C-alpha cells in the first residue's frame, strides 16, 4: 500500500499555496478573541511546542498515532456515563472506561448531520465553505471536492500511514472517495444507512420503512421505476489512487438486513486488521473507524440491552466492539503513543424515538436540527501521559477544531492551507493544559446552507425568521435551560445586540473569502466491478444529468 | 434531652399492637412477588441477620448511626454527577464524592410533593393511607396524626437518640410536630418556603411573587386582610414533649429574604452542633437534616455557579454545606459506623424554569406531577465496609422503603406496626448484597389522593381519565422514552391488561385495610411565644374553624 501514487494528494496540496509565515485565515470571531488573548496564546504556544517536541523525542522522533472513532447519530449523554446508562437502559462500559482514562469534552459541537460533520472534521471548515450540505441517498454526482485539503492528506504528507474503515458519506463521485482524499486504504459504503438499513424488506416489515419494499404493495399506476432507489452501489474497498471494488453483493442479489449486519461485522473485523497492519509499520498512523451501527431498524432475535430498542441494542453491541478494538490497541503495545478519540457525529434520529430506544435525553432535538440535541455529542480523548486521565472540560469545542489540532500535534500546521478560511481552532492547549484553555467560546450552527443559531459562552440565539427584526430572535441560557424552551428574550435584548455583531463578523469574513464550490462529476466512476443494475441506474441518472 | 418524657411515643406505639410473630401487612402487589420469591428471600434474610449481628458486634453491640439528608425539589441528575454538573453549570463536588463512596440508587421513586414524600419516609406508608396530602401554606389545623408510627419513634424506642433539623412540613397542629413524632430535639419552620422565601418584598421585586407584598399595590377595594397570609409562625425549636418556641423574629417584625438566609445558615450551624452533641453520647443516633435550600427566589449579590439561577446557585452553596457536614462526620470519627443517606424529596419546581436555573433535565415534569420528573430523584447511601463504594443499582426503590429498611438495620423490625398497611419494603438485601436484590419492581404514583400512574419494571401506565376505558391509558417504556412522550399504546395493550390487574390488587388491599384519618386540631397549639400577629391569625381561623 505504501507504493501507491500520491498524485491525488499532491494535486490537492498544490491548490493550497503553503507558506509557514502566513497566518491561517480564521473567522472574524476568532480574530476578536485573538485580539484579546493573542499574547497569552503565543507564549503558551512556545511551551506547547516544547512539550510536543519532548513527546516526539521520547518516541523515537515520531508524533503519536491517531485512532479516530466517529459514531453515528447519538446524542450527548447516551454513551460514556454510567448514570445515564441507567436512565437509558443501555450499558456502554467500554466507552465509559475510555472516558475515565482521558479527557471528556463536555461541550463538543458538531454539525447537525452526518455529511457536514464529517466534512468539518476532514477539512477544518464549516461544510458550507466547501459547498457541502447533506449528501442524500440516490445518485447526486456531487461530493467533497478535490480542492479541499483533508486532515488525512496533511498527515499523509507528514509521513503518516492512513486508513479509513466504515461510513464515509462524502459523495458518489470519484474525487470524493476516501482513497482519493488522503487515505492509503479504505473500506466504505458509497452511500449511507437509509439505503443499507432502512430500504430493506425487513425494515418495511418492522414498520420503520412503510411501503418501501416492492413486496409491500402492488401498484399498476406507478410509472417511475427509480422512485424507489434501485441498484445502488453498496460497500467498496480501495487503495489510494486506485479503483474501488464492490464487495459482499453479487449482480442481481437483493440487499437485506442480514447483509447489513454482515457489513457491520466486516468493518469491525477490518478495523482490527488495519490496526494490526499499521502497528507493524515504522511510520505513525492515522486510522479512522466510522461505524454504521448503532443505526439499524430491525429488532434483533434477542435483545442484549435492557432498553431493547433497535438503535439502543446495537449501541450496546458497538460498545463491546469498541472494547475489543481498545483491547487490541493494548495488545499491540500501542496504548502509550496513540491518541484515541471517540465521539458522535450529531444527535439521534429523533424520528424513530420510542422504538429505536434512543431519545431526546437531555437536550431537545436531534439529527438535522440546530438545537443542542442535534449538535451536542459525547466526545472523549485519551492520550496516556499527556492528557490527564479522568479529566473533563466544559470549554466549547467544534468538530472542525480536530483538523487544526491533529495537524498541530503531528507537527504539520504548516501544511494547513492559507488560501481559505479555516474554522478549526487549534485546541492543543486544551488537551495538554486542561479545562479553561479552549481558544473559542462561540460556534456558528448551520442547518445545511442556512445559519440557524449562534452560540456564545452560555448563551445561544436562534436566528430570527427572514425579515423579522433582531428582537424577535429568542436567546437561551444553555445551563439554565438546556432544552431551549424558555427564551427569556425580554431579559436578553442586550445579548441579541451582541449576537448581531457576531453574525456581521461572520458574514464579513465570508464576503472577503467566498465559499468554494462543491465537487461535481459523474457518479460511480472509479468502481471496477459495477453491477449491471448499478450501471442501469447510472445510465438513467446520466441521461438526465446531461440535460 | 435524654430525660424527656416518652409519653407521646408510647401513645403512638400503643395504638399499634406489636407482635413479632405477625407478618407486616403489605400491599397486594408485594404479596404477588412474595409468592414468587418468598423462599429465596427467607433464606437470604437468615444470612442478612447474621451479617447485621456481626456489624453490631464489631461496634460494641450498637447498630449504626443514621444521618438522613433530604434535599428539597431537585430532579434526578441535578446533583451527584459530574457530567450533569457540566450540563447544568452547577458544581456539586461534595455530593458527587458522597456518591462515589457509596451506592447510587438509580431508580428511587418519591411522592411528587414535599409533605407526601416526607410522610412516606417517616411512616413507611403511602401518605394517602394516613390521610395526608400536601399541606398548604396558611393555617389548616391538620397534620401527621399521632396514630401514625414514625421511624423516629421506632428508633427512639430501640434506644436511638433522635434529632431533626430543617424543613418538616407535616402540619400546623401540635401532634404533627417532630418533637411529638419521635424526635428528642427539633428545629424546624412551622410551614414551608412559599411563606419563607416567596412571600417577601424581595421575591416580589425579583419578579417571582407578583403582587404579593403590600408595598406592590394600593387597592382600596380589597376586603379580606388575610387573603395574603399574615403573621404566620416562622421557625421554632423544641424538645420532645415540650412546647415549641419561635426564634429569629420579634413581634411586629417583617419577614425578609435576609431572615430566610439567616434561617438557612442557622440550620446548617445547628446540624453541625447536633452531630457533635449526638457523637458524644453512648447511644446510636438518628439525625435528620432537611435543608430549605436550594429553594430561594432572589438572586444573590454575586452568583457562585456558572448557572447563576436562584435555585441553582443555592444548590451549589448547599453542596459546600453538605461537604462541611460530611467533613464533620469524619472529624468526629463517625464515618465507619454511620449510614449517610442523601436524596431529594421530589422533582424541581418547574414553574420557575429558566430563572431558577433548575430545569426538566432528563425526565419530564416536576413537583406535584406523577411524571418521572416529579417522582424520580437522586439518592446516595454510604455505609463504609458494608455498602460497596462506587456501586450503583438500577432496581426500583420507593422512599417508603427507607422506613422498613432503617428499622431492620436497627434491629427494630418488630416495632413496625401490624395493624395497618406498610408500603415500605425491606431493602436491606439491596444495600448489603447490591444491585438486583430489590424486593419491588413496582410503584404506585399518587398526586394527592388520586392514583395517577402505575410503574412496573420498565413500563409505566398513566391511568385513564375517569370513565375512559383501559385501552385509553397510555403506557410508556421508561428506558426508551424517559420523557413519557411516546406511549406506543398500540403495542402495549397487553401491558394495559397487566396494569389493570395491579390496580385491582391495590384497590382490594385498600378495601381490606381502609385509610387512617388525617390528624386534626387547633393550629399553633404548643407554641410558647406566639407573636400577637400569629395569635390574631389563629383567632380569625378559629372563628371559621368552629363553624
TrEMBL record, chains A, B:
Protein name: Arylsulfatase A/related enzyme
GO MF entries: arylsulfatase activity; metal ion binding
Ranges of residues in domain Sulfatase N-terminal: 64-411
Annotated SUPFAM superfamilies: Alkaline phosphatase-like
Similarity-based family: Belongs to the sulfatase family.
Gene3D superfamilies: 3.30.1120.10, Alkaline Phosphatase, subunit A
The UniProt record lists the keyword Calcium: yes
InterPro entries named in the record: Alkaline_phosphatase_core_sf, Sulfatase, Sulfatase_CS, Sulfatase_N
Amino acid at each position: 500500500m505504501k507504493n501507491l501514487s500520491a498524485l491525488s494528494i499532491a494535486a490537492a496540496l498544490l491548490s493550497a499555496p503553503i507558506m509557514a509565515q502566513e497566518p491561517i485565515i480564521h473567522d472574524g470571531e476568532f480574530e476578536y478573541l485573538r485580539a484579546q488573548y493573542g499574547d497569552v496564546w503565543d507564549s503558551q504556544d512556545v511551551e506547547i511546542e516544547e512539550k510536543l517536541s519532548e513527546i516526539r523525542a521520547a518516541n523515537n522522533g515520531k508524533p503519536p498515532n491517531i485512532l479516530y472513532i466517529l459514531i453515528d447519530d447519538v446524542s450527548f449523554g447516551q454513551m460514556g456515563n454510567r448514570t445515564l446508562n441507567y436512565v437509558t437502559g443501555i450499558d456502554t462500559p467500554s466507552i465509559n472506561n475510555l472516558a475515565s482514562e482521558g479527557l471528556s469534552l463536555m461541550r463538543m459541537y458538531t454539525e447537525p448531520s452526518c455529511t457536514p460533520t464529517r466534512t468539518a472534521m476532514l477539512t477544518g471548515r464549516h461544510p458550507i465553505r466547501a459547498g457541502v450540505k447533506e449528501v442524500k441517498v440516490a445518485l447526486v454526482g456531487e461530493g467533497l471536492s478535490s480542492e479541499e485539503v483533508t486532515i488525512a492528506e496533511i498527515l499523509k504528507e507528514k509521513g503518516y500511514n492512513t486508513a479509513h474503515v466504515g461510513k464515509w458519506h462524502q459523495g458518489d463521485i470519484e474525487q470524493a472517495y476516501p482513497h482519493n482524499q488522503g487515505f492509503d486504504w479504505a473500506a466504505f459504503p458509497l452511500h449511507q444507512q437509509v439505503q443499507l438499513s432502512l430500504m430493506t424488506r425487513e425494515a418495511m416489515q418492522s414498520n420503520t420503512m412503510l411501503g418501501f419494499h416492492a413486496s409491500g404493495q402492488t401498484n399498476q399506476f406507478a410509472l417511475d421505476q427509480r422512485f424507489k432507489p434501485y441498484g445502488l452501489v453498496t460497500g467498496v474497498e480501495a487503495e489510494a489512487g486506485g479503483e474501488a471494488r464492490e464487495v459482499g453483493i453479487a449482480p442481481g442479489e437483493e440487499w437485506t438486513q442480514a447483509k447489513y449486519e454482515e457489513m457491520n461485522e466486516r468493518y469491525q473485523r477490518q478495523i482490527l486488521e488495519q490496526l494490526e497492519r499499521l502497528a507493524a509499520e515504522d511510520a505513525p498512523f492515522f486510522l479512522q473507524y466510522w461505524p454504521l451501527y448503532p443505526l439499524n431498524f430491525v429488532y434483533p432475535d434477542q435483545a442484549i440491552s435492557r432498553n431493547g430498542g433497535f438503535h439502543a441494542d446495537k449501541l450496546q453491541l458497538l460498545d463491546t466492539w469498541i472494547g475489543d478494538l481498545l483491547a487490541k490497541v493494548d495488545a499491540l503495545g500501542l496504548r502509550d503513543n496513540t491518541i484515541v478519540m471517540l465521539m458522535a457525529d450529531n444527535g439521534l434520529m429523533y424520528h424513530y424515538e420510542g422504538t429505536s430506544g434512543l431519545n431526546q435525553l437531555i437536550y431537545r432535538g436531534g439529527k438535522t436540527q440546530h438545537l443542542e440535541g442535534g449538535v451536542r455529542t459525547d466526545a472523549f480523548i485519551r492520550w496516556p501521559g499527556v492528557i490527564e486521565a479522568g479529566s473533563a472540560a466544559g470549554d466549547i469545542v467544534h468538530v472542525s477544531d480536530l483538523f487544526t489540532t491533529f495537524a498541530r500535534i503531528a507537527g504539520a500546521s504548516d501544511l494547513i492551507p492559507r488560501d481559505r478560511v479555516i474554522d478549526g481552532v487549534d485546541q492543543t492547549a486544551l488537551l495538554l493544559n486542561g479545562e479553561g484553555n479552549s481558544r473559542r467560546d462561540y460556534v456558528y450552527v448551520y442547518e445545511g446552507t442556512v445559519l440557524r443559531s449562534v452560540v456564545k459562552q452560555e448563551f445561544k440565539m436562534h436566528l430570527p425568521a427572514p425579515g423579522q427584526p433582531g428582537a424577535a430572535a429568542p436567546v437561551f441560557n444553555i445551563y439554565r435551560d438546556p432544552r431551549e424552551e424558555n427564551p427569556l428574550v425580554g431579559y436578553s435584548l442586550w445579548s441579541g445586540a451582541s449576537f448581531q455583531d457576531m453574525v456581521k463578523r461572520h458574514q464579513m469574513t465570508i464576503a472577503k473569502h467566498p465559499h468554494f464550490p462543491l465537487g461535481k462529476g459523474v457518479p460511480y466512476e472509479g468502481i471496477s466491478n459495477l453491477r449491471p443494475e448499478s450501471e442501469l441506474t447510472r445510465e438513467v441518472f446520466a441521461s438526465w444529468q446531461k440535460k
